[in-house]
Each structure stands twice: as structure tokens, then as C-alpha cells.
Amino acid sequence: VLRRVLEWYPARHNAWYLLGVNLGASGQNEAAIEALQQAITLNDRFAAAHSALGNVYIALNRHDEAQAAYDQALTVDPSSSRGHGGLGAVHQALGHPEQAIAAYEKAIESDTQYVDARIGLGQMYLAAGNHELSLDILSEAESLAPSRPVVHNALGDAYIAMRRPEEAIASFQKAVELEPAFAPTYCGMGRAYRALGRPETAIAAYQRAAELAPGEGEPFAGLADLHADAGRNEQAIAAYERAIELGFVSADLYNRLAAAYRLTGQYNAALATHEKAQEYDSSHPIAYDSLGQVFMALEQHDRAQDAYRRAVENDETNAVALTGLA
Questions:
Q1: What pTM value is reported for the model?
Q2: CB of 19 within 8 A of CB of 3?
Q3: What is the pLDDT of residue 222?
Q4: 61-154-57 Cα angle (round to 5)
Q5: Separation CA 184–CA 151 (nearest Å)
Q6: DSSP letter string, 45-67
Q7: 36: buried, middle or exposed (CB in 10 Å: 19+, 13-18, 0-12)?
Q8: Residues with Cβ within 8 Å of residue 135, at least 6 apart in sequence
């Protein structure tokens, strides 16, 4: 219908905007970008189009372009809730917690009904360890949008962080009732069942997530952790490698893969993978205790002792390091 309208009235910036939003919602991101850019060409004072363009760039992990689009929305309309909320999402993705919190709070000031900004703000406080405040904010989001699965998923994550897995499972089950084929919900269930000590149920949840989203790495990382818990290190390695291949990468994941290599006697691979963890994120804590074990296996005793000493400096109760130094 929108394309037909544009055939008749090609200068309607609102129609180009609506077309772009709909294309983005259906995953046709490049076409969405073209439509939204056309809307902006016709009316560069259209803040909503700039914000919608930022949303598409966020979906493509093109964060610099997303930030530029949201900045433009705020230049046009400094009170734009979607502009502030979009900037919050950019800073959240880039690991800038203070900027993300400030942007989300401005978004909520502009629109107290803005659920996505409340979810993002709750997630940022959760990551900062302020669990009670996070739970309060996410509960407010639930009261505003009880039919949105993403709200229940965020609440589930908060309950996991607070070591309340039963309540987490209840939240994820609400999300499943609302949208049975949403892969992130099953990943959340996998985390909750793992925390509850029900590994087989957790595996089933991650397997369902992998069926629903075979191109996503998170389900494979979850399966890998469960294999590692059970000592199935070869299977863990295969699943970690698959997660990384699909783009689900973090320094912590590299370190977990390195530990699995070490436990299967693949010491050079373990060392190389620990080094990848540092290359990926130099600010991430170094797994000195595991490195010490790798160096000992490689008969690099001086490097092992140095690694163990550094581990004890970070944690005086680190049993692996203390044993290595004994």
C-alpha cells in the first residue's frame, strides 16, 4: 500500500518514513535505510526519521552511523525521547555505562511510557551490580507493557543475577506464552535451569534456541558451558568454536574455550586462545590461574610462577594459584 501511495505521491516524506519503519521491522535493513534517507532528503527536520534510521543502523551493528543519526534527531528536536533512547542503546552496545544510563534517563524524562528505555536502563543498572534498582525499573516496564516478551526476558535476567532462578524461570515462561518461537527466551531459560542445577533441562532449552535461531551463537555458547560443567570438554570445544564462528565473541568466552583446550591437553591452543582473549578486550581480567597451569604443562616454570603470583595478587584465596606456588 505504501509503495502504491509513493507511486502517486513520491514527495510524501511521511510515506517514505512509514515504508522505512516497516521494512526495518521485517529485517529488510538496506531497503529501510534507502527509504528513511529519502524521507530525510524530503524533510531533514523530521526527527522521527533520523531516529528510525539510527534504529536500523543499530540492528546492523553500525554504531557510528547510528550515533550520528540519533545526534541529528536531537539537533532537530532536543527533547526527542527516541533520540535519547537510541543514544542509550549505542552506548550500551559500546560498553559506555555512564553515558548509556544518562541517555536512557533523559529518554524516560521525555516520555515516561517509553518501555524500551526502561528496559535498557534496567539492564545497565543490572550490569553495574545495582540489582534492586534494576528490578524496580524492569518491574515498572512490565506494568507498562505486560504483553511484550522482551520485558519478561529482562526480568528473568535480573532474577538470575540475584540468584533467584525459580522466579527467573517464571518470567521466561511468561515470555514463551506470549511468543513461543523467540530464541532469546530459551537462552534465558537455559541460564536459569543451569543456575538451578537442572543441566538436562538447560540443554533442551538451548537446543530449542538453536533450532529457532541457527545463525546465532549464544545457544551454542550456553551448550558449551553445560558440556564443560559435565567434563565433556571435546563437545564443549566444538560448541565454543561454533559460537565464535557465528560472532558470539567475548574475552570471557575465549578464556572458557582456553580452559577446555587445557583440560584436553591442547596446551598451545589454550595459550593462543588466552592471548586472543586479551587481544579482544585488553581491559578484561586475565585468567592468570589457568595461564599458570598452561605454562606448567609447557614446562615454562618461571612464567607459570609469575602467572600464579599475579592470580594471588588479584585474589588471595585463589586455590589453583596457591597450590601452584606451594
A1: 0.84
A2: yes
A3: 98
A4: 15
A5: 12
A6: T-HHHHHHHHHHHHHTT-HHHHH
A7: buried
A8: 122, 155, 158, 159, 162
